[in-house]
Write a structure and sequence with these properties.
The structure is a single chain. This protein has seven helices and eleven strands. It has about 220 residues and is an alpha/beta fold. The chain has an eight-stranded mixed beta sheet. A three-stranded antiparallel beta sheet has the order 1-2-3, with no helix packed on it. Helix 1 (about 30-40) crosses helix 2 (about 65-75) and helix 6 (about 170-180) crosses helix 7 (about 195-200). It starts with 5 loop residues before the first strand and ends with a strand.
């Protein structure tokens, strides 16, 4: 499936992609970078106290979450093995136009592009503290997914439930729970009651946390 992607500027000066076919943005129009930092790094990575983190991302998208995580490992000293699932990758041409490296660290433009250009299906050591494995699939195929080790942290960043309801099901959250270590965390921008209840049914303890600009709450689930 090929969808039209339009690059748009969000309120914090960072880009997002808009898909007219779905009437959906990849990131908050109130600020792409600040949303990702708030939901996935501050509520997730920074809250997890181990120095070696086996991380799963549902929805690679623009690569922003991965790039922010990579930059964070260089400051924190953490080592992250980053597995990400993406059914419909963003084209390299679009990735090259995104302004994340310009805003965050202009010297890392090539590193950001490498996140998108690296081979699918294989581990790639992007930096000494960040290894990446991209899989061209999505959460609908999780039953077939056999990771090398259980996960410590999950970034759940699929499109919204009203756009992709099949990505927000009890079966998916049950499978993610089974693929996680004890004490593992899952963070997501979606705080809908139905999603919170599915996470709880899977076995997670779920917290509602204050959201980034434009969003009242987010969820953090702990096994």
């Amino acid at each position: 499936m090929t969808m039209l992607h339009i690059i748009e500027l969000t309120e914090d000066g960072s880009h997002t992609l808009y898909i007219p076919e779905l009437n959906e943005h990849y990131h908050s129009t109130h600020g792409a970078v600040q949303e990702s930092l708030h939901v996935y790094l501050e509520a997730g990575l920074h809250h997890y106290d181990k120095q070696e983190v086996n991380l799963l991302e549902i929805g690679f998208g623009t690569g922003l979450n991965a790039f922010l995580t990579l930059l964070d490992t260089e400051r924190s000293g953490k080592t992250v093995k980053y597995t990400t699932l993406e059914r419909y990758p963003v084209s390299l041409a679009h990735a090259e136009k995104l302004n994340y490296s310009k805003l965050l660290d202009p010297s890392r433009k090539e590193i950001f592009i490498q996140l998108h250009s690296s081979a699918w299906g294989d581990w790639v050591d992007i930096t000494p503290t960040f290894g990446l494995k991209k899989l061209q699939t999505d959460a609908l195929r999780l039953e077939e997914f056999q990771p090398e080790a259980l996960f410590d942290l999950i970034y759940y960043d699929a499109f919204a439930p009203e756009k992709q309801p099949g990505m927000w099901t009890e079966e998916i959250f049950n499978r993610l729970y089974a693929l996680s270590n004890y004490g593992a965390m899952l963070t997501t921008y979606c705080a809908k009651g139905a999603v919170r209840r599915m996470l709880q049914t899977a076995g997670y303890r779920v917290e509602r946390l204050p959201g980034p600009p434009g969003k009242r709450e987010i969820l953090r689930a702990v096994k």
